[in-house]
Amino acid sequence: MSAVLRQIRYFQAVVRNNSFSEAAAECHISQSAISQQIKALENELGFPLLERKNRKFVLTPAGEHFYKKSLILMADYEQICSEAAKIARGDEVILKFGYLRGYNSREVHLALEEFAAKYPRVSFQVLYGNHEELFNLLRNGGADLVLNDQRRAFSDEYVNLILAASCMYVEISARNAIAALPSVTTEELKNIPCILVASREQREIEQEYYQTVIGFQGNFLYAENLEEARLLVISGQGFMPVPGSSQAVNFGTSICRIPLCRGEEQITRNYGLFWKKDNSGYYIEEFADILKSKFEEE
Questions:
Q1: Which of 170, 180, 179, 196 is nearest to 260 (CA)?
Q2: For labelling alongside 190, which of 81, 94, 97, 133 has CA 20 to 30 A away?
């Protein structure tokens, strides 16, 4: 480790312990040595980090800023070293990507294609789930990053990258009379079952969301995946709410996609990419940048 990085570690230890003596004990060096290292760091930077008062000290404004940013710097440094070591050893790198069940995105397909071509040694594992399943995967370390809809206020624990504010549509059988409407409201759909793509464990949670937040009032049917849900739509058993960037989607003559409105305004929902700040690494951020660029191209 370089001298400057070692000095930064000593500085962080002093601030964390609020004591030169305790920091010295933690770092297994003498108190005079750690004091000299902090002074050497200040000389290297060209400004004081600490204002010393007898046996105590306080951070200068510059020192407080440097301390906060240095924590991020050192975390990134450790992550980079860990990833580089894996590459050097030839270890398999697996990027675990949580993908919203029922969400169909051309941008994700294009991003995966570009990422795989650029990093053929990185294995990409896709994990499907509803909102709560993906949130739990991310929180418990089961996924490195997830593409999810926004149902919560943002947390400072995560990187919250909004990719799109998608308009809401319903897909309905072309044989249904409602298919002739230019748009439809939740009130007009109250007598038609709503088809949700949800695992058995998440059905109740998804139903509550679509009832209380979106406003659907009728019965609900469930499908394990998009293909099954669209077969239910084609057979005339109900409608399926879907996000989208346009109404023009090719389903032949079997399914119509109609804007879903609340009053006269089309309902929108935010979709984004989320990952823990303390798990941020090169491949996560690289895939995030690629995916973001695909949404910006559309």
A1: 170
A2: 133
Alpha-carbon distance of 111 to 67, in angstroms, equals: 36
CA–CA separation, 12 and 262 (whole Å): 53
Residues 6+ apart with CB under 8 A from 288: 145, 159, 161, 273, 275
C-beta atoms surrounding 263 within 10 Å? 8
User: How far separated are the first and last CA of the chain, in Å rounded?
Assistant: 45
Q: How many helices (H) and strands (E) does the chain have?
A: 9, 13
Assign residue 90 a region: left if phi > 0, alpha if psi is -120 to 50, beta otherwise? left
In angstroms, rounded to a whole number, what is the distance separating the alpha carbons of residues 137 and 150? 15
Report the chain's C-alpha Rg in angstroms: 26
Report the C-alpha gap between 236 and 256 in whole angstroms.
12
Model pTM score: 0.64
Q: Are strands 265-266 and 122-129 parallel, antiparallel or unpaired?
A: unpaired
161: which 2 tokens?
A: 């990258």
Instruction: Give pLDDT, residue 77.
Output: 86
**For residues 40 and 120, which has the higher predicted lDDT (pLDDT)?**
40
**pLDDT number for residue 280:** 73
Length of the chain: 298
